[in-house]
Amino acid sequence: MSGRRARTDSERSVLESASEVLIGRVGHLTDLLIGELRAHSPQYDIAVPADEHWQQINEALRYGIEVIPAPRSAPRRDLEFAEKLGRRRAEQGLSLDLLLHAYRKAGYLVWDELLDAVTARDPEALPVLARTAAQMWAAVDRQAATVAEAYRSTEEDMQRRTDERVQALLDALLEGQTSAALVAGAAAGLDLPEQGRYAVVVLRAERREGREQFHRVTAAAGLRFFWRMRTDCEVAVVALDPGTGLSELSAELERRCAGPGGMSPVVSGLAELGLARRLAETALRTCAVTDPAGAPRIVRLDKRLPTALVVSQPELAARLVAEVFGPLLALDPGDRAVLLETLDAWLGAQGSAGRAATRLYCHRNTVFNRLRRLEQLTSRSLSRPRDLTEMTLALDAFRLSAA
After folding, report:
1. Are the CB atoms for 67 and 130 separated by under 8 Å?
2. What are phi and psi of 35, to 5 degrees?
3. In CATH, which of 3.10.450.50, 3.40.190.290, 1.10.1040.10, 1.10.10.2840 is domain 313-402?
């Protein structure tokens, strides 16, 4: 109970007498209140077992009546019970609006019964209630605030535990676990179908202290992103609607993310997320062998398959560099860099010496001369498809080793 003005002895006597009457009728008041709540919403009966509901309302009314005549220094059992009840109702799933409605109805019911009790025993004492009404309703407001705070706190804890469970399920899928129970649990927790169109994106990013682990679930047209933070990267599981493909996903990621990043092909269910993650990581590793000046920020594996083969087999990649570019490795680093830069520009220009020369700020004949020297050193011809493939892959492998 709170209030700025201390009560007089006569006021306390009136309130104590009326409260005793109400305590004697608390069972009847409990029946009345439950009847009103059931008439207001069937959810009270659905969420809360009947016996438990009656007992808790009876206890809440009793504590609420006891606090009416109590001095401000008295222990607040009504608030202790409100905190307990707020936690319980959150766990049972009764909405906070209905819980607060019950407290308001209880306040009105007790007030009306208090008026009746004073009127019946001593009508001339009614002005006492008028002077203490503000204090009584302040007590009701405080009870409602306490129950709401406990409810919200419990709800947050429950949501956090649910998120942690869903995070664990999602992480397990990304690690390649595929048990039926795991897939079903993740589908239910994420509200996703077990069989559907999914892709995984891996972004290289520095970890920020204090950043949320399950830091966002976002959506765009035809796309739902479920993000996870790892030690040195961010991973997104993306659910794609029918008609939405990797082109739309790539465009959305370019708007959202700084990259670099790798994108898996589309897989057909949650059980394939582990495979998709590995493929996305492979796509990300191909960024190490891409010219930064012309590279997209987010790369698709299906657009980088030859390079992906190279980065997936580092030992074979090293042998390929030694076999194809062996003589180049003995050159002065500056001379070697010029030749490889020319080869890269020529490949990027689709075999056009003129366009390559424009990129390199030199004459096209210079490009031809450098390419001929490269062919002589490697004993390979850029006009033979197999030799061209070897030199292209060797160039990627060399950049990988340099990175």
Report:
1. no
2. -60, -45
3. 1.10.10.2840
8 Å CB contact between 290 and 253: no
What kind of fold does domain 9-158 have according to CATH?
Answer: Globin-like (1.10.490)
Phi/psi at 302 (nearest 5 deg)? -65, -15
C-alpha to C-alpha distance for 320 and 314, rounded to whole angstroms: 10
Of 42, 83, 93, 37, nearest to 60 (Cα)? 83
Query: Which residues, in sequence order, are bridge partners of residue 223?
Result: 220, 240
Closest CA to 262 of 203, 221, 316: 203
pLDDT single digits (tens) 17-51: 888 999 999 999 999 999 999 999 999 999 999 99
DSSP characters over 27-72: HHHHHHHHHHHHHH-THHHHHS-HHHHHHHHHHHHHHHHHTTTS-T
| Residue 378 pLDDT greater than 60, yes or no | yes
Which pTM was predicted? 0.59
| Alpha-carbon span 175 to 307, nearest angstrom | 24
* Pair 186, 239: CB distance under 8 Å: no
Backbone angles phi, psi at 380, to 5 degrees: -135, 155
Q: Give the CB-side neighbour count of residue 355, counting CA atoms within 13 A.
A: 9
Tokens 């927790």: give the residue: 189
Q: Please state which of the ranges 124-138, 144-158, 264-278, 301-315 shows the lowest mean pLDDT.
A: 124-138
Q: Give 177-218 pLDDT, tens digit per residue.
A: 999 999 998 898 888 999 999 999 999 865 444 334 334 556
